[in-house]
Design a protein that fits this description.
Helix content: 10-25%
Number of strands: 6
Structural class: alpha+beta
Number of helices: 3
Distance between the termini: 7 Å
Order of helices and strands: HHEEHEEEE
Strand content: 35-45%
Shape: globular
Oligomer: single chain
Strand order of the largest sheet: 1-2-4-5-6-3
Radius of gyration: 15 Å
Length: 132
């Protein structure tokens, strides 16, 4: 049974993990979102590069915002990432999510993560709408 619509922005405002890292929303619309974060000391691994889990979290946040921009609430059914280039302390990462397909209860979203003009990761997520 539905308990009411939660907007993508309300979902983000309640997202302690993303907000604690300093992730900020740059753009938000149904089916698309852009978020940014600056790599901090606590996000760098033993190789001196950004830990992949943080890059995934940034992409996943953009994905979540994009697929929750409609009337129905959605969660991830599947997601994967391809790491292409490393990033380092102080780099600003930008994740841009875009809807590729949406029908019934399912959706497919691609997220490109960049540092400046350089693509550092590609993420694909499948969404599934849920009852709230």
């Amino acid at each position: 049974m539905s308990t009411g619509r939660i907007t993508a922005r309300e979902m983000f405002d309640a997202d302690q993990a993303s907000r604690a890292l300093g992730i900020e929303i740059s753009e938000l619309a149904p089916g698309s979102a852009t978020v940014t974060v600056t790599v901090s000391e606590t996000m760098v691994n033993g190789h001196g590069i950004t830990h992949g889990g943080y890059v995934f979290l940034l992409a996943d946040t953009a994905f979540a915002l994009a697929c929750n921009g409609y009337e129905d609430s959605a969660v991830a059914a599947r997601a994967d990432i391809r790491f292409l280039r490393p990033t380092r302390l102080g780099d600003t990462l930008t994740a841009v999510a875009s809807e590729k397909a949406r029908g019934g209860r399912s959706g497919i979203y691609d997220v490109t993560v960049r540092s400046g003009d350089t693509v550092v990761a590609e993420f694909r997520g499948d969404s599934r709408t849920i009852s709230r």
